[in-house]
């Protein structure tokens, strides 16, 4: 990367967006960070105190007052690199005033681990279809990495995937710091769909744990899940020489299925304990992407006629209101 100052726009103000602001602040490259914060009162709090009042609130954030915006379009227009970091279900609303021309010539980074509801498109596909952004300009940030561990500066790894390796290296260089290592990948679709699927599998693990199943069963569930993920991703994007045991796939699945910080596992655990979907959503302060992804992936399962019993189980419980205990018992007969 040359010595010019890169302007990086962050669209989103949740825990992962806040963690990314911290990563960028602790990186030594020349840059200027612009940040869209949805709620005006939260923006004013960050401006006054340098902390996000709702997410990772202990983290000191290094963003200049003049670079805090309540309009996403202002951030996108002013940035060289745009990082989209909202829950997938809220992306349309965040971009409602944004035009294709606002993205023109920019590197656009998806740090969203979900599918756009109703459209059933991953973020890269959605940007290409509605904003005419070439896939060569899209970069995907994958895991395994929890925002909470970033906030405490625990050594973590990000997978940066792009069809254009120059763009991947550019983004990796801006996020890499003393506690963040980066891995470069060319498998844009695999990394993005893998991130979607692992949330569903973590939710499945949480359901099973909530029902009283133990670590032995969860290990079998996860080993079946990675094979199911491989089947799905290869059907969607065949002919790619991907290692499903790499960090972006297996690693991200493991941390999401097992970690105390996993909101998808937590959501699933609540469902297993008997919460309704609505009551679990109300009690959680963060979005569980696996809930929305479960419905979207059903369309892909049907389109490609795939055998994906774990995803089917989660869908039956969440959307068809089937009893969790009975569905897990049926799934248990299919695991190997």
TrEMBL record:
It catalyses: sn-glycerol 3-phosphate + NADP(+) = dihydroxyacetone phosphate + NADPH + H(+). Transmembrane segments: none annotated. Residues 187-325 form the Glycerol-3-phosphate dehydrogenase NAD-dependent C-terminal domain. PROSITE patterns: NAD_G3PDH. One of its GO terms (cellular component) is cytosol. GO terms for molecular function: glycerol-3-phosphate dehydrogenase (NADP+) activity; NAD binding. Its EC number is 1.1.1.94. The keyword NAD applies. One of its GO terms (biological process) is glycerol-3-phosphate catabolic process. NAD(+) binds at residues 147, 263. InterPro entries: 6-PGluconate_DH-like_C_sf, 6PGD_dom2, G3P_DH_NAD-dep, G3P_DH_NAD-dep_C, G3P_DH_NAD-dep_N, NAD(P)-bd_dom_sf. SUPFAM superfamilies: 6-phosphogluconate dehydrogenase C-terminal domain-like (SSF48179), NAD(P)-binding Rossmann-fold domains (SSF51735). The active site is at 198 (proton acceptor). Substrate binds at residues 113, 263-264. The keyword Lipid metabolism applies. Residues 7-167 form the Glycerol-3-phosphate dehydrogenase NAD-dependent N-terminal domain. Belongs to the NAD-dependent glycerol-3-phosphate dehydrogenase family. PANTHER family: GLYCEROL-3-PHOSPHATE DEHYDROGENASE, GLYCEROL-3-PHOSPHATE DEHYDROGENASE [NAD(+)] 2, CHLOROPLASTIC. This is Glycerol-3-phosphate dehydrogenase. It comes from Sphingobacterium allocomposti.
């Amino acid at each position: 990367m040359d010595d010019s100052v890169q302007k990086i726009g962050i669209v989103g103000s949740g825990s992962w967006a806040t963690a990314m602001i911290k990563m960028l602040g602790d990186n030594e490259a020349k840059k200027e960070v612009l940040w869209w914060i949805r709620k005006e009162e939260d923006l004013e709090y960050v401006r006054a105190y340098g902390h996000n009042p709702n997410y990772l609130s202990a983290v000191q954030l290094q963003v200049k007052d003049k670079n805090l915006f309540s309009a996403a379009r202002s951030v996108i227009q002013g940035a060289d690199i745009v990082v989209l970091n909202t829950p997938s279900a809220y992306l349309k609303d965040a971009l409602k005033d944004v035009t294709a021309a606002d993205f023109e010539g920019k590197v656009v980074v998806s740090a969203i681990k979900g599918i756009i509801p109703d459209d059933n498109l991953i973020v890269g596909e959605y940007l290409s279809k509605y904003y005419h952004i070439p896939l060569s300009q899209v970069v995907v940030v994958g895991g395994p990495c929890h925002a909470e561990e970033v906030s405490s500066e625990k050594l973590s790894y990000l997978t940066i995937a792009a069809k254009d390796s120059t763009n991947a290296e550019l983004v990796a260089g801006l996020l890499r710091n003393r506690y963040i290592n980066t891995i470069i990948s060319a498998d844009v679709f695999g990394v993005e769909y893998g991130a979607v699927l692992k949330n569903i599998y973590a939710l499945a693990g949480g359901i099973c744990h909530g029902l009283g199943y133990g670590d032995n069963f969860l290990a079998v569930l996860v080993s079946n899940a990675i094979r199911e993920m491989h089947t799905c991703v290869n059907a969607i994007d065949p002919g790619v020489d991907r290692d499903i045991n790499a960090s972006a796939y297996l690693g991200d699945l493991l941390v999401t299925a097992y970690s105390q910080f996993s909101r998808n596992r937590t959501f699933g655990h609540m469902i297993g304990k008997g919460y309704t979907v609505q009551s679990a959503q109300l009690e959680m302060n963060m979005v569980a992407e696996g809930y929305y992804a479960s419905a979207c992936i059903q369309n892909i399962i049907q389109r490609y006629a795939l055998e994906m019993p774990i995803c089917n189980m989660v869908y039956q419980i969440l959307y068809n209101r089937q009893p969790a205990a009975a569905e897990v018992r049926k799934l248990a007969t299919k695991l190997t």
